[in-house]
Amino acid sequence: MSEPHISTTPLREFKVHKGRVRAVAVFPDKRRMVTASYDRTLRIWDLKKGVMLKKMGKAVGYRHWQYHEMGN
Questions:
Q1: What was the pLDDT predicted at 72?
Q2: Where are the extended beta strands (E) located within 1-72?
Q3: Backbone angles phi, psi at 38, to 5 degrees
Q4: CA distances from 52 to 12, 13, 44 (A)
Q5: CB of 43 within 8 A of CB of 16?
Q6: How many angstroms separate the CA atoms of 61 and 9, rounded?
Q7: CA separation for the pair 43, 45 (Å, rounded)
Q8: Percent helix, strand and coil across the chain, each to the nearest 5
Q9: 13 pLDDT exceeds 80?
Q10: Partner of 32 at 20 to 30 A CA spacing, among 2, 11, 43, 70?
Q11: Domain boundaries, the chain
């Protein structure tokens, strides 16, 4: 198994949140990520295109969300 590539150089910036980003999670498919911000929103991003796919506004309890993939 190869070692993961670790880089401190940003490949892309996602600057849409109005507050600082508090959490980031990449989906298992490695094509999307979700960000949670102090502006109380969650946003889903397309990592390849760098575009926002969905905004979920004024999330309550956003610190406690998690992604769960349903089995086939």
A1: 44
A2: 21-26, 32-37, 42-46, 51-56
A3: -65, -15
A4: 13, 12, 6
A5: yes
A6: 31
A7: 6
A8: 5, 30, 65
A9: no
A10: 2
A11: 21-60
Q: How far apart are CA 63 and CA 46, in angstroms?
A: 22
Please name the residue that has the structure tokens 């946003």. Answer: 43
What is the rounded distance in angstroms from the CA atom of residue 47 to the CA atom of residue 10? Answer: 13
C-alpha distance across the termini of the chain, in Å: 27
Answer whether 50's CB lies under 8 Å from 14's CB.
yes
Q: For residue 33, which amino acid is it? A: M
Please tell me the pTM assigned to this model: 0.64
Sign of the dihedral through C-alpha 41, 39, 9, 64? negative
Does residue 23 or residue 70 have the better pLDDT? 23
Write down how long the chain is: 72
